[in-house]
Specification:
single chain, Udp-n-acetylmuramoylalanyl-d-glutamate--2,6- Diaminopimelate Ligase, Chain: A, domain 1, 11-stranded parallel beta sheet, 10-stranded parallel beta sheet, lipid biosynthesis, Trimer_LpxA-like_sf, UDP-3-O-[(3R)-3-hydroxyacyl]-glucosamine N-acyltransferase activity, UDP-3-O-acylglucosamine N-acyltransferase
């Protein structure tokens, strides 16, 4: 079903300054290049400003500077991307689950499901679980014993919560995610691995989003903790007893080893790996594919690895890397020889 909103209503909703007709109807969102005469677009990245002149959108979300000289209708805002994010929910075609419990769902007698919650087909809710008001539990979800899901949560089909997972309000978990699986804990005795029971749980704060096929393992002793407002992309591994601070975001395929603590307002790009038992302070940005092997104590951006090159050049660089030890030894020998023949014995290149 397509939503239709008048431009004046949209301006009021976003707190925007309207330049144009308040009666114009908006039926959707699109990019500057693809927007049609009934769609809203936005300019957030300066590199796309070149598309503004030929844009066919009904209206465009613009900063005040970009709106000067623009001949079309506009909504002038301080942050076009943030306004686009807010407006996107008005046009979201995602079906809304009907309230109530599907007849095929299996719910323990002592589980508590709020009357305003929705439980989909073939969902299983085990003993002692509590489902809050406005929660959607999608088809084929599994909610383990003593789990708690706060108000307004949304679990897509086939989400799995093992026992003793506590989830705050307005949490979104996408399909295939597994929360509370057993952490990777084993003791080695004479080459034989002995399993360690993972007796902790998982504690997830408010307004968290967890992507498709992401795994958050339960704690070995204390809980694994995900703070308020954390955003986890698809296919992320959070090991046992990890702690993630409020409003930290991680892109796909990040892997975090056990007992690592990550601060607030951090950003981890795709494919980042962290060893276990380290601390990352607040306000750290780690670039894609970085391998973090020790604690980070100062805010800022961090990288590791080598940047992309044409394959032939990369092979040459890799060959030179293998020669670094030999080159370092030869340099020391050369410095010693130069030092032996200079009057003051100083082989430094500083003069």
């Amino acid at each position: 079903m397509t939503a239709t909103i008048r431009l004046g209503e949209l301006a009021e909703f976003l707190g925007a300054t309207l330049c144009g007709s308040p009666e114009k109807e908006i039926t959707g969102l699109a990019t500057l290049q693809e927007a049609g005469p009934a769609q809203l677009s936005f300019l957030a990245n300066p590199q796309y400003r070149k598309y503004l002149v030929d844009c066919q959108a009904a209206a465009v979300l613009l900063k005040a500077a970009d709106a000067e000289g623009y001949v079309g209708d506009a909504l002038v805002v301080a942050d076009p991307y943030l306004s686009y994010a807010k407006a996107s929910h008005l046009f979201d075609p995602k079906p809304r689950a009907a309230g109530g419990i599907h007849p095929s769902a299996v719910i323990a007698e002592d589980a508590q499901v709020d009357p305003a919650a929705s439980v989909g087909a073939f969902a299983v809710i085990e003993s002692g679980a509590r489902i809050g008001p406005g929660v959607t539990v999608g088809a084929h979800c599994f909610i383990g014993a003593r789990c708690e899901i706060g108000a307004g949560g949304w679990l897509a089909p086939r989400v799995t919560l093992y026992h003793d997972v506590r989830i705050g309000q307005r949490v979104v978990i996408q399909s295939g995610a597994v929360i509370g699986g057993e952490g990777f804990g084993f003791a080695n005795a004479k080459g034989v691995w002995h399993k360690i029971a993972q007796v902790g749980g998982v504690l997830i704060g408010d307004d968290v989003e967890i992507g498709v096929n992401t795994a958050v393992d339960r704690g070995a002793l204390a809980d694994t903790v995900i703070g308020n407002g954390v955003k986890l992309d698809n296919q992320i591994q959070i090991a046992h007893n990890v702690q993630i601070g409020d409003h930290t975001a991680m892109a796909a395929c990040v892997g975090i080893s056990g007992s690592t603590k990550i601060g607030k307002h951090c950003m981890l790009a795709g494919g980042v790996g962290l060893v276990g038992h380290i601390d990352i302070c607040d306000n750290v940005f780690i670039t894609g594919m970085t391998m973090v092997t020790h604690s980070i104590t100062e805010p800022g951006a961090y990288s590791s690895g080598t940047a992309m090159q044409p394959a032939a050049e990369w092979r040459k660089s890799a060959a030179r890397l293998r020669q670094l030890d030999d080159m370092a030894r030869r340099l020391k020998q050369l410095e010693k020889r130069v030092g032996d023949v200079t009057p003051d014995g100083n082989a430094s290149s500083q003069g």
